[in-house]
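Hi L., both proteins are below.
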Amino acid sequence: MVIDRLVLALPLLMVAVLALGSYWMVRSAPGVDTGELPRPPDDTPDYLIEGFTVQKFDDSGRLTALLKGASAQRLPDAPWIEIQKFTFLSTDAQGRVKRASADQGLSSQDNNEFQLSGHALMVRDAHPAGDYPRLEIRGDFLHVWTEPEKVESDKPVQLVHGKHRIRADSLQYDGTTRTLQMDGRVQAILVSENSTP
C-alpha cells in the first residue's frame, strides 16, 4: 500500500523538483540589459547647403572671417562640417590676413580648425608692417588651425616663405613660435634677402 502511494505521488514530486530547479536557474542567471541597443551611425546629413557664404564681423563692422563653399553638410554624429570647394579668409586685429582653400574641407564648429584635402593651400599674407614675408603652404592634405596659427601635414608639401622654396614629405609649422619642422626627403632653395629675384 505504501509503495502504491509513493508510485502515485512520484509524478507530483518530480514536477515539484523541476519547478524548484527552474526557479533556482532563473534567480541565479545574470540579468538581461533591457536598455536600447546602440543605433548604427546615421549617414543622413542634418542639413545640406548649396552655394553658401558665411561672414563674421567684429564690433566695429570690420570683416574678420569669411567661409564659403559649393556645398556643406554635417552628419548627426560628426564634429565636422564637410565642405566642397572650400575657401576661408580671416583677418586679425593687426591686419594679418590668412587664406585657405581646397577641393574638400572639414571645418570645426567654431571655424578654428580645418582639414583640407585635394589641392590644399594655406597662405599668410606678408605683414603690412613688414614684420614677416608671405608664407604659402601647398599639398594634397593640410591640417590648419587659425588661433593659434598651426599647420601640419603627413603628406608631401611645398612651402614658399618670401624668396625661399622648400619641399618635404611632411611638415609641422607653429606660427606662434615661428618654428618649422620638415621631415623625410627635404629639398630647399634658400635665397639671400639681398639678392634680386
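That was the first. Here is the second:
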Amino acid sequence: MKRFTLGFIIGGIICSALTGFAVEYAVTANPFPIKVDGVEKSIEGYNINDSTYFKLRDIADAVGGFTVGFTNNTITISTQATPPEPANTDGAITIYEGQPRDNRLAKEGDIFVKADGTEIVLAIGPHGVLGEGQGVAPDVGLMDEVGQGDAKFTAPLEANGRLITGKYGPDSVGKETSDTQYQVNILTGEGHWSSEWAVINDYTRPTETGTEVGEISADKNYFWNSLTWVLVAEHPEYSDIFKVN
C-alpha cells in the first residue's frame, strides 16, 4: 500500500531533490488518479521515495474547508469558513447567537441572527434598554479579557459573566460594563447588563402578590420567591422551582 502524504512542494525543493540530492531522493510525477468523495480530480502530485506529495493550495481548492495564503514570508492556513468580522465602531454589524467575537457592544440597528437563522434588528425598548422584549442576548460571546495583573487571558463572555477591563464602555443605559454583570433570562433567552435589568425592573416588576413559590410572571421575567418578585435573569440557579404559566 502506497503512503500518501499531504505536503507543500515548491520549485526549489523539487529542483534540489533532482540535483544535489538526486541519489537520495527520486522524484517522479504522481501516477495515480485522485478521487475526492468518489469524484476524480485533476491534482498535480509528486512521488518522492514512495510517498506522494501535493501542493497544499491544490488540496484546499479540491477538498475545501480551509484556505492557504502567503503573507510576510509565512505560509498561512485558515480553517474558518468566513473571515472574522473586523472590529469596528461605526455602522451596523451582524451578531450570531452565542458566537465569540472581538468587537464592540451591540448597538441599535445591529442584526442579531438566532441559531435557527431568524434575523432580528436590535432596537431600543420602551424603557430605553437595547433589545428589551426581543428575546435575544446580543453581548454573549464578546471576547472578555479576564484575570488580574499579568495573569490575564481572553475568553468569550458567557451568560451571567462579568467584564474586567471595561474596554467596551457604557451599556445602553449609560453604565460602564466593567461595573456590571451580563445576565440572561433562561426562560426567554433575553440578555442585558445588570444595570439594564435594573431599569427594566423599575418599570415592569409585578405589583400584585404571587400565589405560589416559583410562579412566573406573564412576561416570564420574574418569579415569586414567597416574599417578592425576583428577576429570573438574576437567579438562574433557581430554575428547578420555576413554574411557567
